Amino acid sequence: MKKTFNVSILVSILIATSSCAMIQKLTCNANTAKSTGARDATSGSINMPGLNSGNSCEGEYTNTQYQADYRQGFEEKKNQICQVSEITKMTQVSVDAGLTKADVEKKMGACVTMSSYSSLKSTMERTYMAGFCSTTRAESMGYKHGSDLANKAFEQNFAGCEAKWSSLKSAYDQAYNKASTQAHKNKQDLFVKSTGTSTFMLDQKNLSASCQIPADQSLVQVTVNNPNPSQTLVQGQWNYQYFDKDFAKIADDSGVDAVLLSPQSNKSFTKMTLPRNASFCRAEFAGVATGSNIK
Fold first, then answer.
1. Is the same domain home to 49 and 92?
2. What pLDDT is recorded for position 10?
3. What does the pLDDT look like over 125-142, one tens digit per residue?
4. Domain that holds residue 286
């Protein structure tokens, strides 16, 4: 038992040693050091946070070599990104992504120690405000808010753009109204297709009924679909549910109606009484009376 225990410990030690060696091999090399430095510069780091990541490096590739390669990767990336063209590009992308000016300035952290930083920051601020106060952004934000059926939020999102306030608000409102109209229609269509449509069995036949209320809210129209190859009479009690414009249920009632369906066809009937403010409905055949095949 003791021998087995000692072997187990030895195996565990070997596995741990092997794992440490593998981790060290992945960390302690020039490519990793340079890419870590480049990544830190890109993220806007100022004080080279990954410089000491190679503290465990020894042997063929020491910590000193790691730090030298890290600094090289950091400086090369810094010199690449701290250029007017790159700052302009980065700022434009950041505006499109919804970042604040403070977020963009933070991404320039690696450039702080450069003599050109003041000029680069001015470039960033001009580019940021040009994109932030653009018609394209106004249209994009209006479309997003409208598509989400969210409340309008122009003022909150365009503070600082007072010089172009009127044109930006017009672009925002037009995009919002168009998108919200389509989004609401899509939501209505989905509601009618799901909640507004019921299915039922009659004389061993599958039938369906779609309930709709026109825009003037003057009546209820129920369209019954018969996909079967024979005529069918549907007569009996119908149960109705009514919903307001926001799809909240507001009332129930019932009525008796009959409709003769030709083979593989639709036929509608109307109900002239409905609750005030009802915009949508659902009709379910209760099957009180018996449907009959017409020979």
1. no
2. 47
3. 999 999 999 999 999 999
4. 196-293
- 292 band by pLDDT with thresholds 50, 70 and 90: very low
How many domains, the chain?
4
Beta strands across the sheet bearing 205-212: 197-202, 205-212, 220-226, 265-271
Does 151 lie in the same domain as 204? Answer: no
Quick: pLDDT tens for 51-103: 999 999 998 999 999 999 999 999 999 999 999 999 999 999 999 999 999 99
**Beta partners for residue 234, in sequence order:** 259
Q: Are residues 203 and 237 in the same domain?
A: yes
Q: Is 73 exposed, middle or buried (0-12, 13-18, 19+ CB in 10 A)?
A: buried
For residues 286 and 201, state if they share a domain.
yes
The structure tokens 């925002």 sit at 172
Estimate to the nearest angstrom the gap between the alpha carbon of 214 and the chain centroid.
32
